[in-house]
TrEMBL record:
Primary localization class, coarse: Golgi
The protein's name: UDP-galactose translocator isoform X1
One Gene Ontology MF term: pyrimidine nucleotide-sugar transmembrane transporter activity
Record's bilayer topology term: Multi-pass membrane protein
Transmembrane segments: 26-45, 57-79, 158-175, 195-214, 226-246, 258-283, 290-310, 316-334
Length: 386
């Protein structure tokens, strides 16, 4: 009898040890995926926007990413309905059309996300990748402030200090870049540092507001993240097409929707469409500290890669500013003391990542759903936010 109990206890310990090892491996995998997704999208967009030859229309790329995202979420809903087309169609008709008032709530964040995705292309096309990566972390500051104002969330003292360090670090980087912008942008006379900086600041503000607004909607609704992403995507496609017609309508009519698309451009679009969803799945195994570390490490990866790919120059001021930002991101992700309320999530540039942060627990049980992204961040979202 005693031998049987000892044997059972030994098996339970072995099982527990095996699960612990598996979770540890999944955490490292999650870290790698988060770093690659955070850095690769920015670097790849920067790369395709600096290549010689025909330039693809960024407005069409935004629309294509929304189309792919909606198709993916529809496939997941179909899978949840056990591939019953009739049941899926009935569910979507009821949720999107008949409950149109609920669907219309997504128009605001969808408009903001569409604007944000277009601004991201503008910013990365006019700023060095490393500078964009550092400056874009201001989304943490905007998300935190909107969370305090709109969701009545509280921040710990460490988090407030980290936000001050974040702002200071970004300011140092901008002072450094302002002094060296002619050298850093000498590779293309078509680039405009001021335009890029304005685009990234507006993108950060819109990311923060949209992420918190979306979280507020999700918390007041029983709808799944995947349905919300379909609703967002439908608005996103409509608004994206409107922007595409307004900005590039004549050129697209002449050259075609897919003008300038290369294999690398398709990689960027797939990364933008599926990156947030992928991060959402792996974040199940990552905690806030790991996400903060991944974001910090991705800044280093972007900087080092920019040196070799784009001839980016790193000096003492940039190193100091980036160091402050990296430290601030890590500090912000640290858990609050017992008894404190949870801190706001970091919003991603992608809408799917932002959705994940708000509804992580319940959705994970339904279908490995998302959380973010971002950052990802979203948040993220992205995601994203993004």
């Amino acid at each position: 009898m005693a031998a049987g109990k000892h044997s059972q206890a030994g098996e339970e310990k072995a099982t527990s040890r095996g699960q612990s090892d598996a979770n540890r491996k999944l955490k490292y995998i999650s870290l790698a995926v988060l770093v690659v997704q955070n850095a690769s999208l920015i670097l790849s967009i920067r790369y395709v926007r600096t290549l010689p030859g025909d330039r693809f229309f960024t407005t069409s790329a935004v629309v294509m990413a929304e189309i792919l995202k909606v198709l993916t979420c529809l496939l997941i809903i179909l899978l949840q309905k056990k591939f019953s087309v009739k049941e899926t169609a009935s569910f979507l008709l009821d949720s999107i059309v008949f409950q149109y008032k609920d669907t219309l709530k997504l128009a605001v964040p969808s408009l903001i996300y569409t604007l944000q995705n277009n601004l991201q292309y503008v910013a990365i096309s006019n700023l060095p990748a490393a500078t964009f990566q550092v400056t874009y972390q201001l989304k943490i500051l905007t998300t935190a402030l909107f969370s305090v104002m709109m969701l009545r969330k509280s921040l710990s003292r460490v988090q407030w200090i980290s936000l001050l360090l974040l702002f200071g670090g970004v300011a140092i980087v901008q002072v450094q870049q302002e002094g060296n912008k002619e050298a850093s942008l000498s590779d293309s006379s078509s680039q405009n540092y001021t335009v890029g900086l304005v685009a990234v600041v507006i993108s950060c503000m819109s990311s923060g507001f949209a992420g918190v607004y979306f979280e507020k909607i999700l918390k007041g609704s029983a709808a799944s993240v995947w349905l919300r992403n379909v609703q967002l995507g439908l608005f996103g496609m409509a608004l994206g097409m409107l922007g595409m017609w307004w900005n590039d309508g004549a050129a697209i009519a002449e050259h075609g929707f897919l003008f300038g698309y290369t294999g690398m451009v398709w990689c960027v679009i797939f990364n933008q469409a599926f990156g947030g969803l992928l991060v959402a799945v792996v974040v199940k195994y990552a905690d806030n500290i790991l996400k903060g570390f991944a974001t910090s490490f991705s800044i280093i990866v972007s900087t080092v890669t920019s040196i070799y790919l784009f001839g980016f120059h790193v000096d003492l001021m940039f190193t100091a500013g980036a160091g402050l930002v990296i430290g601030a991101v890590y500090m912000y992700s640290l858990p609050k003391a017992a008894g404190g309320s949870s801190s706001p999530g970091v919003s991603s540039s992608a809408s799917s990542v932002a959705a994940a942060g708000a509804e992580r627990g319940a959705e994970m049980e339904a279908f490995l759903p998302k959380a973010q992204g971002g950052d990802t961040s979203p948040p993220s979202a992205v995601h994203i936010t993004d």
